[in-house]
UniProtKB/TrEMBL annotation:
Biological process according to GO: dendritic spine morphogenesis; regulation of cell migration; small GTPase-mediated signal transduction
Sorted UniProt keywords: Guanine-nucleotide releasing factor
Family: Belongs to the DOCK family.
InterPro entries listed in its UniProt record: DOCK, DOCK_C_lobe_A, DOCK_C_lobe_C, DOCKER_dom, DOCKER_Lobe_A, DOCKER_Lobe_B, DOCKER_Lobe_C
Organism: Buteo japonicus
The DOCKER domain, residue ranges: 100-527
GO molecular function, one term: guanyl-nucleotide exchange factor activity
Protein name in UniProt: DOCKER domain-containing protein
Protein backbone atom coordinates (compact mmCIF):
# COMPACT_ATOMS: atom_id res chain seq x y z
CA UNK A 1 0.00 0.00 0.00
CA UNK A 2 2.76 2.37 0.97
CA UNK A 3 4.65 1.70 -2.28
CA UNK A 4 1.48 2.42 -4.29
CA UNK A 5 0.99 5.64 -2.28
CA UNK A 6 4.56 6.76 -3.06
CA UNK A 7 4.20 5.74 -6.72
CA UNK A 8 1.11 7.97 -6.96
CA UNK A 9 3.09 10.95 -5.60
CA UNK A 10 1.54 10.57 -2.13
CA UNK A 11 -1.99 11.24 -3.42
CA UNK A 12 -3.78 7.88 -3.15
CA UNK A 13 -3.56 4.08 -2.98
CA UNK A 14 -6.12 3.44 -5.70
CA UNK A 15 -4.33 0.47 -7.30
CA UNK A 16 -3.97 -1.31 -3.93
CA UNK A 17 -7.55 -0.30 -3.20
CA UNK A 18 -8.84 -1.92 -6.40
CA UNK A 19 -6.75 -5.07 -6.07
CA UNK A 20 -7.66 -5.65 -2.41
CA UNK A 21 -11.38 -5.06 -2.91
CA UNK A 22 -11.35 -7.46 -5.88
CA UNK A 23 -9.46 -10.09 -3.86
CA UNK A 24 -11.79 -9.75 -0.85
CA UNK A 25 -14.87 -10.07 -3.09
CA UNK A 26 -13.50 -13.26 -4.63
CA UNK A 27 -12.63 -14.67 -1.19
CA UNK A 28 -16.14 -13.88 0.05
CA UNK A 29 -17.61 -15.81 -2.87
CA UNK A 30 -15.20 -18.74 -2.61
CA UNK A 31 -14.39 -19.18 1.07
CA UNK A 32 -16.86 -17.06 3.03
CA UNK A 33 -14.26 -15.00 4.94
CA UNK A 34 -15.24 -12.37 7.46
CA UNK A 35 -14.64 -13.89 10.91
CA UNK A 36 -12.93 -12.32 13.92
CA UNK A 37 -9.40 -13.10 12.67
CA UNK A 38 -10.02 -11.26 9.42
CA UNK A 39 -11.49 -8.28 11.32
CA UNK A 40 -8.42 -8.32 13.59
CA UNK A 41 -6.15 -8.27 10.51
CA UNK A 42 -7.90 -5.11 9.25
CA UNK A 43 -7.35 -3.46 12.64
CA UNK A 44 -3.62 -4.35 12.52
CA UNK A 45 -3.31 -2.81 9.02
CA UNK A 46 -4.91 0.41 10.33
CA UNK A 47 -2.53 0.47 13.32
CA UNK A 48 0.50 0.04 11.05
CA UNK A 49 -0.64 2.93 8.87
CA UNK A 50 -1.26 5.19 11.88
CA UNK A 51 2.10 4.23 13.43
CA UNK A 52 4.16 4.96 10.33
CA UNK A 53 6.10 8.07 11.41
CA UNK A 54 7.25 8.89 7.88
CA UNK A 55 3.60 9.07 6.74
CA UNK A 56 2.36 11.09 9.73
CA UNK A 57 1.88 14.37 7.86
CA UNK A 58 0.29 12.99 4.68
CA UNK A 59 -3.11 11.39 4.05
CA UNK A 60 -1.79 7.80 3.85
CA UNK A 61 -3.42 6.70 7.18
CA UNK A 62 -6.75 8.20 6.03
CA UNK A 63 -6.52 6.32 2.69
CA UNK A 64 -5.84 3.04 4.53
CA UNK A 65 -8.70 3.71 6.95
CA UNK A 66 -11.05 4.38 4.01
CA UNK A 67 -10.00 1.10 2.38
CA UNK A 68 -10.51 -1.03 5.51
CA UNK A 69 -13.87 0.68 6.10
CA UNK A 70 -14.99 -0.29 2.57
CA UNK A 71 -13.84 -3.87 3.12
CA UNK A 72 -15.89 -4.03 6.35
CA UNK A 73 -18.92 -2.65 4.45
CA UNK A 74 -18.56 -5.44 1.90
CA UNK A 75 -18.30 -8.08 4.65
CA UNK A 76 -21.31 -6.78 6.59
CA UNK A 77 -23.50 -6.48 3.48
CA UNK A 78 -22.59 -9.99 2.36
CA UNK A 79 -23.54 -11.45 5.76
CA UNK A 80 -26.83 -9.52 5.72
CA UNK A 81 -27.63 -10.74 2.20
CA UNK A 82 -27.74 -14.31 3.43
CA UNK A 83 -30.10 -13.20 6.20
CA UNK A 84 -32.47 -11.36 3.81
CA UNK A 85 -32.32 -13.62 0.75
CA UNK A 86 -36.16 -13.96 0.72
CA UNK A 87 -36.75 -10.19 1.06
CA UNK A 88 -36.31 -8.73 -2.47
CA UNK A 89 -36.38 -5.07 -1.38
CA UNK A 90 -33.82 -5.54 1.40
CA UNK A 91 -31.66 -7.78 -0.79
CA UNK A 92 -31.51 -5.16 -3.54
CA UNK A 93 -30.81 -2.42 -0.96
CA UNK A 94 -27.83 -4.41 0.36
CA UNK A 95 -26.50 -5.09 -3.12
CA UNK A 96 -26.92 -1.38 -3.88
CA UNK A 97 -24.80 -0.50 -0.83
CA UNK A 98 -22.14 -2.90 -2.14
CA UNK A 99 -22.32 -1.37 -5.62
CA UNK A 100 -21.77 2.06 -4.01
CA UNK A 101 -18.78 0.78 -2.02
CA UNK A 102 -17.25 -0.15 -5.38
CA UNK A 103 -17.61 3.34 -6.87
CA UNK A 104 -13.86 3.24 -7.61
CA UNK A 105 -13.98 -0.21 -9.24
CA UNK A 106 -16.12 -0.18 -12.41
CA UNK A 107 -16.00 -3.93 -12.94
CA UNK A 108 -17.18 -4.75 -9.39
CA UNK A 109 -19.84 -2.03 -9.37
CA UNK A 110 -21.08 -3.49 -12.64
CA UNK A 111 -21.19 -6.99 -11.09
CA UNK A 112 -23.53 -5.89 -8.30
CA UNK A 113 -25.72 -3.78 -10.60
CA UNK A 114 -26.10 -6.84 -12.85
CA UNK A 115 -27.05 -8.94 -9.82
CA UNK A 116 -29.71 -6.34 -8.91
CA UNK A 117 -31.03 -6.37 -12.50
CA UNK A 118 -31.45 -10.16 -12.37
CA UNK A 119 -33.44 -9.95 -9.11
CA UNK A 120 -35.70 -7.27 -10.64
CA UNK A 121 -36.23 -9.28 -13.84
CA UNK A 122 -37.06 -12.40 -11.82
CA UNK A 123 -39.70 -10.47 -9.85
CA UNK A 124 -41.23 -8.80 -12.91
CA UNK A 125 -39.81 -5.34 -12.09
CA UNK A 126 -38.65 -4.73 -15.66
CA UNK A 127 -38.30 -0.93 -15.49
CA UNK A 128 -35.91 -1.31 -12.56
CA UNK A 129 -33.93 -3.98 -14.44
CA UNK A 130 -33.69 -1.57 -17.41
CA UNK A 131 -32.40 1.18 -15.11
CA UNK A 132 -29.68 -1.11 -13.68
CA UNK A 133 -28.47 -1.82 -17.21
CA UNK A 134 -28.61 1.90 -18.12
CA UNK A 135 -26.47 2.72 -15.05
CA UNK A 136 -23.94 0.08 -16.17
CA UNK A 137 -23.87 1.60 -19.68
CA UNK A 138 -23.24 5.07 -18.20
CA UNK A 139 -20.47 3.62 -16.03
CA UNK A 140 -18.75 2.06 -19.08
CA UNK A 141 -19.20 5.26 -21.14
CA UNK A 142 -17.70 7.36 -18.31
CA UNK A 143 -14.72 5.00 -18.03
CA UNK A 144 -14.10 5.16 -21.80
CA UNK A 145 -14.40 8.95 -21.83
CA UNK A 146 -11.85 9.34 -19.04
CA UNK A 147 -9.52 7.06 -20.99
CA UNK A 148 -9.98 9.23 -24.08
CA UNK A 149 -11.60 6.33 -25.96
CA UNK A 150 -15.14 7.75 -26.34
CA UNK A 151 -16.68 11.21 -26.61
CA UNK A 152 -19.69 10.66 -24.29
CA UNK A 153 -19.59 10.09 -20.52
CA UNK A 154 -22.32 9.72 -17.91
CA UNK A 155 -23.93 13.14 -18.72
CA UNK A 156 -25.10 11.65 -22.05
CA UNK A 157 -27.66 9.66 -20.02
CA UNK A 158 -29.03 12.59 -17.97
CA UNK A 159 -32.02 13.06 -20.26
CA UNK A 160 -33.01 9.45 -19.49
CA UNK A 161 -32.65 9.73 -15.70
CA UNK A 162 -31.08 12.37 -13.42
CA UNK A 163 -30.22 9.47 -11.06
CA UNK A 164 -27.38 8.67 -13.48
CA UNK A 165 -25.10 11.30 -11.91
CA UNK A 166 -24.10 8.55 -9.43
CA UNK A 167 -21.96 7.10 -12.21
CA UNK A 168 -19.77 10.22 -12.19
CA UNK A 169 -18.32 9.23 -8.79
CA UNK A 170 -15.69 6.90 -10.29
CA UNK A 171 -12.17 7.41 -8.89
CA UNK A 172 -9.53 8.22 -11.48
CA UNK A 173 -6.14 6.52 -11.29
CA UNK A 174 -3.82 4.12 -13.04
CA UNK A 175 -5.68 1.30 -11.30
CA UNK A 176 -8.59 1.85 -13.68
CA UNK A 177 -6.53 0.33 -16.48
CA UNK A 178 -7.29 -3.12 -15.03
CA UNK A 179 -10.85 -2.79 -16.37
CA UNK A 180 -11.11 -4.26 -19.90
CA UNK A 181 -13.75 -1.98 -21.48
CA UNK A 182 -14.01 -0.83 -25.08
CA UNK A 183 -16.63 0.61 -27.44
CA UNK A 184 -17.94 -2.81 -28.47
CA UNK A 185 -18.63 -3.73 -24.83
CA UNK A 186 -20.50 -0.41 -24.47
CA UNK A 187 -22.60 -1.21 -27.56
CA UNK A 188 -23.46 -4.68 -26.19
CA UNK A 189 -24.51 -3.11 -22.89
CA UNK A 190 -26.66 -0.48 -24.60
CA UNK A 191 -28.35 -3.16 -26.71
CA UNK A 192 -29.25 -4.93 -23.45
CA UNK A 193 -30.73 -1.63 -22.20
CA UNK A 194 -32.86 -1.37 -25.35
CA UNK A 195 -34.07 -4.96 -24.90
CA UNK A 196 -35.32 -4.17 -21.39
CA UNK A 197 -36.87 -0.87 -22.45
CA UNK A 198 -38.97 -2.84 -24.96
CA UNK A 199 -39.87 -5.36 -22.24
CA UNK A 200 -40.82 -2.63 -19.75
CA UNK A 201 -42.80 -0.73 -22.45
CA UNK A 202 -40.78 2.45 -21.94
CA UNK A 203 -40.52 2.97 -25.69
CA UNK A 204 -39.94 6.73 -25.37
CA UNK A 205 -36.41 6.12 -24.04
CA UNK A 206 -35.22 3.82 -26.83
CA UNK A 207 -34.06 6.57 -29.22
CA UNK A 208 -32.15 8.31 -26.42
CA UNK A 209 -30.36 5.11 -25.31
CA UNK A 210 -29.37 4.46 -28.93
CA UNK A 211 -27.55 7.80 -29.35
CA UNK A 212 -24.18 6.52 -28.05
CA UNK A 213 -24.50 3.44 -30.30
CA UNK A 214 -25.07 5.74 -33.29
CA UNK A 215 -21.87 7.61 -32.35
CA UNK A 216 -19.91 4.32 -32.28
CA UNK A 217 -21.31 3.03 -35.59
CA UNK A 218 -20.71 6.40 -37.30
CA UNK A 219 -17.11 6.37 -36.09
CA UNK A 220 -16.73 2.79 -37.38
CA UNK A 221 -18.55 3.69 -40.63
CA UNK A 222 -20.78 0.66 -40.07
CA UNK A 223 -23.62 1.82 -42.31
CA UNK A 224 -25.48 -1.50 -42.34
CA UNK A 225 -25.81 -1.53 -38.54
CA UNK A 226 -26.71 2.17 -38.59
CA UNK A 227 -29.51 1.39 -41.03
CA UNK A 228 -30.80 -1.42 -38.79
CA UNK A 229 -30.54 0.81 -35.74
CA UNK A 230 -32.55 3.64 -37.29
CA UNK A 231 -35.21 1.12 -38.28
CA UNK A 232 -35.45 -0.02 -34.62
CA UNK A 233 -35.79 3.61 -33.53
CA UNK A 234 -38.50 4.04 -36.20
CA UNK A 235 -40.33 1.00 -34.74
CA UNK A 236 -40.09 2.40 -31.22
CA UNK A 237 -41.71 5.70 -32.26
CA UNK A 238 -44.46 3.83 -34.12
CA UNK A 239 -45.13 1.97 -30.88
CA UNK A 240 -45.23 5.24 -28.93
CA UNK A 241 -47.75 6.66 -31.42
CA UNK A 242 -49.87 3.52 -31.01
CA UNK A 243 -50.03 3.48 -27.20
CA UNK A 244 -49.17 7.03 -26.10
CA UNK A 245 -52.49 7.80 -24.36
CA UNK A 246 -54.27 4.47 -24.61
CA UNK A 247 -53.68 3.61 -20.93
CA UNK A 248 -52.87 0.09 -22.15
CA UNK A 249 -49.44 0.37 -20.57
CA UNK A 250 -49.42 -0.31 -16.85
CA UNK A 251 -46.42 1.47 -15.36
CA UNK A 252 -47.12 0.29 -11.83
CA UNK A 253 -48.67 1.56 -8.62
CA UNK A 254 -47.04 3.28 -5.68
CA UNK A 255 -47.39 2.72 -1.93
CA UNK A 256 -46.04 4.49 1.12
CA UNK A 257 -44.69 1.81 3.50
CA UNK A 258 -43.59 2.76 7.03
CA UNK A 259 -42.06 0.48 9.67
CA UNK A 260 -42.60 0.78 13.44
CA UNK A 261 -41.19 -1.38 16.23
CA UNK A 262 -37.58 -0.86 17.31
CA UNK A 263 -37.29 -4.39 18.67
CA UNK A 264 -38.08 -5.84 15.24
CA UNK A 265 -36.98 -3.42 12.55
CA UNK A 266 -33.87 -1.98 14.27
CA UNK A 267 -32.31 0.61 11.89
CA UNK A 268 -35.39 0.43 9.61
CA UNK A 269 -37.67 1.54 12.47
CA UNK A 270 -39.52 4.77 11.72
CA UNK A 271 -38.34 4.86 8.11
CA UNK A 272 -40.79 5.47 5.28
CA UNK A 273 -40.38 4.26 1.71
CA UNK A 274 -42.27 4.53 -1.55
CA UNK A 275 -42.65 1.04 -3.02
CA UNK A 276 -43.24 0.76 -6.76
CA UNK A 277 -45.33 -2.36 -7.41
CA UNK A 278 -45.89 -3.98 -10.83
CA UNK A 279 -48.93 -3.38 -13.04
CA UNK A 280 -52.22 -3.11 -11.08
CA UNK A 281 -50.99 -4.39 -7.69
CA UNK A 282 -53.75 -3.54 -5.20
CA UNK A 283 -53.48 -2.40 -1.58
CA UNK A 284 -54.59 -5.79 -0.26
CA UNK A 285 -52.03 -7.56 -2.48
CA UNK A 286 -48.99 -5.59 -1.28
CA UNK A 287 -50.27 -5.73 2.33
CA UNK A 288 -50.55 -9.52 2.15
CA UNK A 289 -47.10 -9.82 0.58
CA UNK A 290 -45.47 -7.71 3.30
CA UNK A 291 -47.47 -9.48 6.01
CA UNK A 292 -46.23 -12.88 4.84
CA UNK A 293 -42.65 -11.66 4.41
CA UNK A 294 -42.39 -10.21 7.92
CA UNK A 295 -44.53 -12.91 9.55
CA UNK A 296 -41.94 -15.42 8.30
CA UNK A 297 -39.23 -13.28 9.92
CA UNK A 298 -40.88 -12.33 13.21
CA UNK A 299 -43.78 -14.78 13.66
CA UNK A 300 -47.34 -14.33 12.41
CA UNK A 301 -48.65 -13.24 15.83
CA UNK A 302 -46.09 -10.44 16.09
CA UNK A 303 -46.89 -8.47 12.92
CA UNK A 304 -49.73 -5.99 12.40
CA UNK A 305 -50.65 -4.07 9.23
CA UNK A 306 -51.89 -0.46 9.63
CA UNK A 307 -54.06 0.50 6.63
CA UNK A 308 -55.21 3.79 8.12
CA UNK A 309 -53.32 6.68 6.48
CA UNK A 310 -53.32 8.86 9.63
CA UNK A 311 -50.00 9.94 11.13
CA UNK A 312 -48.72 7.29 13.52
CA UNK A 313 -47.38 8.20 16.96
CA UNK A 314 -44.92 5.39 17.84
CA UNK A 315 -45.62 6.01 21.55
CA UNK A 316 -49.20 4.81 21.03
CA UNK A 317 -48.03 1.45 19.63
CA UNK A 318 -47.47 -1.75 21.60
CA UNK A 319 -43.70 -2.54 21.57
CA UNK A 320 -44.58 -6.26 21.48
CA UNK A 321 -45.57 -5.95 17.80
CA UNK A 322 -43.95 -5.07 14.49
CA UNK A 323 -46.20 -2.55 12.69
CA UNK A 324 -46.22 -1.93 8.93
CA UNK A 325 -48.28 0.99 7.63
CA UNK A 326 -49.25 0.70 3.96
CA UNK A 327 -50.88 3.61 2.09
CA UNK A 328 -51.77 3.96 -1.59
CA UNK A 329 -50.18 7.09 -3.08
CA UNK A 330 -50.20 8.72 -6.52
CA UNK A 331 -47.56 10.83 -8.30
CA UNK A 332 -47.87 14.52 -7.40
CA UNK A 333 -47.16 17.45 -9.72
CA UNK A 334 -47.50 21.19 -9.25
CA UNK A 335 -50.01 22.78 -11.65
CA UNK A 336 -47.36 23.97 -14.15
CA UNK A 337 -45.55 20.62 -14.16
CA UNK A 338 -48.85 18.75 -14.59
CA UNK A 339 -49.54 20.81 -17.73
CA UNK A 340 -46.14 19.80 -19.17
CA UNK A 341 -46.60 16.09 -18.45
CA UNK A 342 -49.23 15.24 -21.02
CA UNK A 343 -48.79 11.47 -21.54
CA UNK A 344 -49.08 8.37 -19.34
CA UNK A 345 -45.34 7.81 -19.73
CA UNK A 346 -44.51 11.35 -18.60
CA UNK A 347 -46.75 10.89 -15.55
CA UNK A 348 -44.70 7.84 -14.50
CA UNK A 349 -41.14 8.77 -15.47
CA UNK A 350 -38.61 10.72 -13.40
CA UNK A 351 -40.99 11.27 -10.49
CA UNK A 352 -40.08 11.74 -6.83
CA UNK A 353 -43.15 13.36 -5.26
CA UNK A 354 -46.26 11.49 -4.19
CA UNK A 355 -49.53 12.43 -2.53
CA UNK A 356 -52.20 10.81 -0.42
CA UNK A 357 -55.26 12.26 1.29
CA UNK A 358 -56.74 11.46 4.68
CA UNK A 359 -60.42 12.35 5.32
CA UNK A 360 -61.43 13.70 8.73
CA UNK A 361 -64.05 15.87 10.44
CA UNK A 362 -63.64 18.33 13.30
CA UNK A 363 -65.99 16.17 15.39
CA UNK A 364 -63.45 13.33 15.28
CA UNK A 365 -65.28 11.08 12.83
CA UNK A 366 -63.50 10.04 9.64
CA UNK A 367 -66.44 10.82 7.34
CA UNK A 368 -69.34 13.26 7.52
CA UNK A 369 -71.65 15.31 5.30
CA UNK A 370 -70.04 17.52 2.65
CA UNK A 371 -70.49 20.58 4.88
CA UNK A 372 -68.28 19.01 7.59
CA UNK A 373 -65.89 16.88 5.54
CA UNK A 374 -62.25 17.98 5.75
CA UNK A 375 -59.15 16.28 4.39
CA UNK A 376 -55.43 16.31 5.03
CA UNK A 377 -53.19 16.22 1.95
CA UNK A 378 -49.70 14.81 2.51
CA UNK A 379 -46.96 15.20 -0.10
CA UNK A 380 -43.93 12.90 0.16
CA UNK A 381 -40.55 13.43 -1.54
CA UNK A 382 -38.11 10.57 -2.19
CA UNK A 383 -34.31 10.68 -2.33
CA UNK A 384 -34.20 9.55 -5.99
CA UNK A 385 -36.56 9.51 -8.96
CA UNK A 386 -38.64 6.56 -10.15
CA UNK A 387 -37.91 4.36 -11.97
CA UNK A 388 -34.56 3.66 -10.31
CA UNK A 389 -32.14 0.77 -9.80
CA UNK A 390 -34.25 -0.02 -6.70
CA UNK A 391 -38.02 -0.53 -6.55
CA UNK A 392 -38.33 1.13 -3.16
CA UNK A 393 -36.89 4.56 -2.40
CA UNK A 394 -36.69 6.23 1.00
CA UNK A 395 -38.89 9.23 1.78
CA UNK A 396 -36.68 12.19 2.75
CA UNK A 397 -39.32 14.85 3.41
CA UNK A 398 -43.06 15.35 3.74
CA UNK A 399 -45.47 18.26 4.02
CA UNK A 400 -49.13 18.24 5.05
CA UNK A 401 -51.90 20.76 4.43
CA UNK A 402 -55.46 20.64 5.76
CA UNK A 403 -58.45 21.54 3.58
CA UNK A 404 -61.69 22.80 5.15
CA UNK A 405 -65.06 21.65 3.71
CA UNK A 406 -65.41 24.33 1.01
CA UNK A 407 -61.76 23.84 0.00
CA UNK A 408 -62.50 20.11 -0.33
CA UNK A 409 -65.42 20.99 -2.64
CA UNK A 410 -63.20 23.31 -4.73
CA UNK A 411 -60.55 20.61 -4.99
CA UNK A 412 -62.95 17.79 -5.91
CA UNK A 413 -64.86 19.85 -8.50
CA UNK A 414 -61.60 21.09 -10.09
CA UNK A 415 -60.55 17.45 -10.50
CA UNK A 416 -63.88 16.60 -12.16
CA UNK A 417 -63.52 19.46 -14.65
CA UNK A 418 -59.94 18.47 -15.43
CA UNK A 419 -60.85 14.77 -15.92
CA UNK A 420 -63.78 15.57 -18.24
CA UNK A 421 -61.68 17.97 -20.34
CA UNK A 422 -58.86 15.44 -20.58
CA UNK A 423 -61.22 12.66 -21.72
CA UNK A 424 -62.77 14.92 -24.37
CA UNK A 425 -59.43 16.01 -25.87
CA UNK A 426 -57.86 12.55 -26.24
CA UNK A 427 -56.99 11.53 -29.81
CA UNK A 428 -58.87 8.27 -29.29
CA UNK A 429 -61.72 8.91 -26.87
CA UNK A 430 -62.22 6.19 -24.25
CA UNK A 431 -66.01 5.89 -24.54
CA UNK A 432 -66.49 3.72 -21.47
CA UNK A 433 -64.58 6.10 -19.18
CA UNK A 434 -66.24 9.15 -20.72
CA UNK A 435 -69.75 7.76 -20.17
CA UNK A 436 -68.97 6.70 -16.60
CA UNK A 437 -67.70 10.22 -15.80
CA UNK A 438 -70.72 11.79 -17.48
CA UNK A 439 -73.12 9.57 -15.57
CA UNK A 440 -71.53 10.49 -12.25
CA UNK A 441 -71.59 14.17 -13.16
CA UNK A 442 -75.02 14.94 -14.60
CA UNK A 443 -77.32 12.68 -12.58
CA UNK A 444 -78.89 14.96 -9.98
CA UNK A 445 -78.64 13.31 -6.57
CA UNK A 446 -79.81 14.99 -3.38
CA UNK A 447 -77.04 13.93 -0.99
CA UNK A 448 -74.13 13.03 -3.26
CA UNK A 449 -72.07 14.17 -6.23
CA UNK A 450 -71.54 17.70 -7.58
CA UNK A 451 -75.00 18.98 -6.65
CA UNK A 452 -74.41 18.14 -2.98
CA UNK A 453 -71.43 20.55 -3.04
CA UNK A 454 -73.47 23.20 -4.86
CA UNK A 455 -76.31 23.09 -2.32
CA UNK A 456 -74.01 22.98 0.71
CA UNK A 457 -71.81 25.95 -0.25
CA UNK A 458 -73.55 28.01 -2.95
CA UNK A 459 -77.18 28.32 -1.78
CA UNK A 460 -77.54 31.88 -0.55
CA UNK A 461 -78.18 31.03 3.11
CA UNK A 462 -75.24 28.60 3.24
CA UNK A 463 -72.78 30.71 1.21
CA UNK A 464 -72.78 33.43 3.91
CA UNK A 465 -70.89 31.07 6.26
CA UNK A 466 -67.84 30.88 3.98
CA UNK A 467 -65.22 33.38 2.76
CA UNK A 468 -66.47 35.36 -0.23
CA UNK A 469 -63.40 34.60 -2.38
CA UNK A 470 -63.84 30.84 -1.89
CA UNK A 471 -67.55 31.00 -2.75
CA UNK A 472 -66.72 32.99 -5.93
CA UNK A 473 -64.04 30.46 -6.90
CA UNK A 474 -66.41 27.51 -6.40
CA UNK A 475 -69.08 29.27 -8.51
CA UNK A 476 -66.56 29.75 -11.34
CA UNK A 477 -65.55 26.08 -11.14
CA UNK A 478 -69.22 25.05 -11.40
CA UNK A 479 -69.58 27.22 -14.54
CA UNK A 480 -66.54 25.39 -15.99
CA UNK A 481 -68.09 22.10 -14.88
CA UNK A 482 -71.34 22.86 -16.75
CA UNK A 483 -69.29 23.71 -19.86
CA UNK A 484 -67.19 20.52 -19.54
CA UNK A 485 -70.31 18.34 -19.18
CA UNK A 486 -71.86 19.96 -22.26
CA UNK A 487 -68.67 19.33 -24.24
CA UNK A 488 -68.57 15.70 -23.04
CA UNK A 489 -72.21 15.17 -24.08
CA UNK A 490 -71.44 16.60 -27.51
CA UNK A 491 -68.38 14.33 -27.95
CA UNK A 492 -70.41 11.32 -26.81
CA UNK A 493 -73.24 12.13 -29.26
CA UNK A 494 -70.83 12.30 -32.18
CA UNK A 495 -69.27 8.92 -31.39
CA UNK A 496 -72.16 6.68 -30.24
CA UNK A 497 -73.93 4.15 -32.41
CA UNK A 498 -77.70 3.77 -32.84
CA UNK A 499 -78.10 1.40 -29.89
CA UNK A 500 -77.08 4.22 -27.50
CA UNK A 501 -79.33 7.00 -28.82
CA UNK A 502 -81.86 6.42 -26.04
CA UNK A 503 -79.10 6.48 -23.41
CA UNK A 504 -77.82 9.77 -24.86
CA UNK A 505 -81.33 11.22 -24.64
CA UNK A 506 -81.52 10.30 -20.94
CA UNK A 507 -78.14 11.90 -20.29
CA UNK A 508 -79.24 15.09 -22.03
CA UNK A 509 -82.38 15.16 -19.92
CA UNK A 510 -80.34 14.71 -16.72
CA UNK A 511 -77.99 17.46 -17.88
CA UNK A 512 -80.88 19.90 -18.46
CA UNK A 513 -82.21 19.09 -14.97
CA UNK A 514 -78.74 19.68 -13.50
CA UNK A 515 -78.38 23.06 -15.27
CA UNK A 516 -81.83 24.07 -14.05
CA UNK A 517 -81.01 23.02 -10.48
CA UNK A 518 -77.61 24.71 -10.60
CA UNK A 519 -79.13 27.94 -11.95
CA UNK A 520 -81.59 28.00 -9.04
CA UNK A 521 -78.87 27.32 -6.45
CA UNK A 522 -76.41 29.89 -7.86
CA UNK A 523 -79.17 32.42 -8.61
CA UNK A 524 -77.95 32.91 -12.20
CA UNK A 525 -78.48 31.31 -15.62
CA UNK A 526 -75.95 28.46 -15.93
CA UNK A 527 -75.53 26.94 -19.38
CA UNK A 528 -73.04 25.33 -21.74
CA UNK A 529 -72.24 27.22 -24.96
CA UNK A 530 -71.70 23.91 -26.80
CA UNK A 531 -74.99 22.46 -25.60
CA UNK A 532 -76.88 25.64 -26.58
CA UNK A 533 -75.33 25.51 -30.06
CA UNK A 534 -76.30 21.85 -30.48
CA UNK A 535 -79.87 22.62 -29.32
CA UNK A 536 -80.14 25.52 -31.82
CA UNK A 537 -78.90 23.30 -34.65
CA UNK A 538 -81.44 20.64 -33.74
CA UNK A 539 -84.22 23.25 -33.66
CA UNK A 540 -83.20 24.97 -36.88
Amino acid sequence: MRKNFEFNKQKSIVRSHLQLIKAVSQLIADAGIGGSRFQHSLAIINNFANGDKQMKNVNFPAEVKDLTKRIRTVLMATAQMKEHEKDPEMLVDLQYSLANSYASTPELRRTWLESMAKIHARNGDLSEAAMCYIHIAALIAEYLKRKGLFSMGWPAFLSITPNIKEEGAMKEDSGMQDTPYNENILVEQLELCVEYLWKSERYELIAEVNKPIIAVFEKQRDFKRLSDLYYDIHRSYLKVAEVVNSEKRLFGRYYRVAFYGQGFFEEEEGKEYIYKEPKLTGLSEISQRLMKLYADKFGIDNVKIIQDSNKVNPKDLDPKYAYIQVTYVTPFFEEKEAEDRKTDFEMHHNINRFVFETPFTLSGKKHGGVEEQCKRRTILTTSHLFPYVKKRIQVISQTSTELNPIEVAIDEMSKKVSELNQLCTMEEVDMIRLQLKLQGSVSVKVNAGPMAYARAFLEETNAKRYPDNQVKLLKEIFRQFAEACGHALDVNERLIKEDQFEYQGEMKSHYKDMLSELSAVMNEQVRSSIFVLVALNEGG
